[in-house]
C-alpha cells in the first residue's frame, strides 16, 4: 500500500514521522541523476593545424560537453609562452625540437608525450598556371623567383621554416636564394604572402597548401632532404586539469583521426 502524506500512513506503519520523511528524502536523492559539470581545457597547437583543430574542437565539445579553448600560433611562440607561464593544458608542436625544449625544462608531464601527426613540405606558387617543378640540386630557384621573394616561416625558429631551410641546404640551394627569402612569423602567414601575390613562390606544409585555393603546389620536397616532419603532443606539468588525458585519448580516436586525415595529415601512430 502506498500513501503520499503522513496522515494517510499514520497507524499503518510502526515508524515515527521523522523516520518516514527521512526515508522519503533519501529515496528522492537516490532517484535524482547526478549532473556532470562541464570542464574547460586549453590547447596550444601549431598554426598549421588551424583547420583540423577547429573540427576537432567542435567534435570534442559535442562528444563530451566540455569546453575547449584553442591558442594557435607558431610552435616556437607557443613554447616560449609556456616557458613564461602561459596556462596551457596541452601543447601540440609542429616539430619535436620545441617539445624537447619544454621537456628539458621539466614542463612536459611524464608519460603523456606521443607522436600524433606527420606532414610534408611543398613549393607553392601564386600563379595557377605555373608548371610543376622538379626538386633537384640543379634546380635554379633563384631564376624562378626573378625579382620576387620566397615566402617562408621563420627559418631558425618556426618548424616549417626550419624544415624548408634544411631541404634547401641539403640540395645546395640555400645560399643562392637566402637573400630573397621573406620570413613570416608562422607558416600560415607565409602562405598568405603567396596567396595574395606578394611573393611568387613559398615553402609551406602540404596541409596548408591544400587548405587554400589561391595557391598551387608546383613541387613536393623529397622526405630525405629534411628531418621527418612529426607533430608531438603532450600534457603540461604546470596544469592539474583532469581533462588532459581525456583530450589526449580523443586525439588518438576515430573522430580526431578523420579530421586530421581530411586536412591531409598523416597519423604518426597507425
How would you portray this structure in words?
- The chain is an alpha/beta fold and 270 residues long.
- It has two domains: 40-118 and 229-267, D-Maltodextrin-Binding Protein, domain 2; 121-225, Periplasmic binding protein-like II (D-Maltodextrin-Binding Protein, domain 2).
- It is built from twelve helices and eleven strands.
- The protein has helices at 6-9, 17-31, 50-64, 75-83, 96-104, 141-145, 159-170, 174-177, 187-195, 206-210, 244-251, 254-262, and strands at residues 40-46, 67-73, 90-92, 114-118, 121-125, 150-153, 181-184, 201-205, 216-220, 230-235, 266-267.
- It has a six-stranded mixed beta sheet. It has a five-stranded mixed beta sheet with strand order 7-6-8-5-9, sandwiched between helices.
- The longest helix has 15 residues, at 17-31.
Amino acid at each position: 500500500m502506498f500513501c503520499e502524506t503522513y496522515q494517510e500512513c499514520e497507524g499503518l506503519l510502526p515508524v515515527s514521522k521523522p523516520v518516514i520523511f527521512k526515508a522519503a528524502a533519501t529515496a528522492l536523492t537516490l532517484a535524482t541523476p547526478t549532473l556532470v559539470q562541464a570542464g574547460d581545457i586549453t590547447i596550444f597547437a601549431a598554426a598549421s593545424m588551424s583547420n583540423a583543430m577547429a573540427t576537432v574542437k567542435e567534435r570534442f565539445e559535442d562528444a563530451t560537453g566540455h569546453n575547449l579553448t584553442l591558442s594557435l600560433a607558431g610552435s616556437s611562440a607557443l613554447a616560449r609562452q609556456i616557458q613564461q607561464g602561459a596556462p596551457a593544458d596541452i601543447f601540440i608542436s609542429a616539430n619535436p625540437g620545441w617539445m624537447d625544449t619544454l621537456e628539458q625544462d621539466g614542463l612536459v608531464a611524464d608519460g603523456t608525450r606521443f607522436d600524433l601527426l606527420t606532414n610534408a613540405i611543398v613549393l607553392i606558387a601564386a600563379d595557377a598556371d605555373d608548371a610543376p617543378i622538379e626538386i633537384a640540386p640543379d634546380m635554379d630557384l633563384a631564376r624562378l623567383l626573378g625579382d620576387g621573394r620566397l615566402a617562408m616561416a621563420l627559418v631558425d625558429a618556426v618548424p616549417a621554416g626550419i624544415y624548408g631551410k634544411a631541404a634547401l641546404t641539403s640540395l645546395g640551394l640555400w645560399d643562392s636564394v637566402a637573400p630573397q627569402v621573406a620570413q613570416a612569423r608562422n607558416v600560415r602567414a607565409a602562405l598568405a604572402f603567396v596567396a595574395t601575390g606578394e611573393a611568387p613562390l613559398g615553402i609551406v606544409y602540404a596541409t596548408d597548401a591544400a587548405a587554400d585555393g589561391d595557391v598551387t603546389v608546383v613541387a613536393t620536397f623529397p622526405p630525405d632532404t629534411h628531418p621527418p616532419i612529426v607533430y608531438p603532443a603532450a600534457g603540461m606539468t604546470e596544469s592539474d586539469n583532469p581533462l588532459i588525458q581525456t583530450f589526449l585519448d580523443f586525439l588518438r580516436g576515430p573522430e580526431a583521426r578523420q579530421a586530421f586525415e581530411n586536412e591531409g595529415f598523416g597519423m604518426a601512430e597507425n
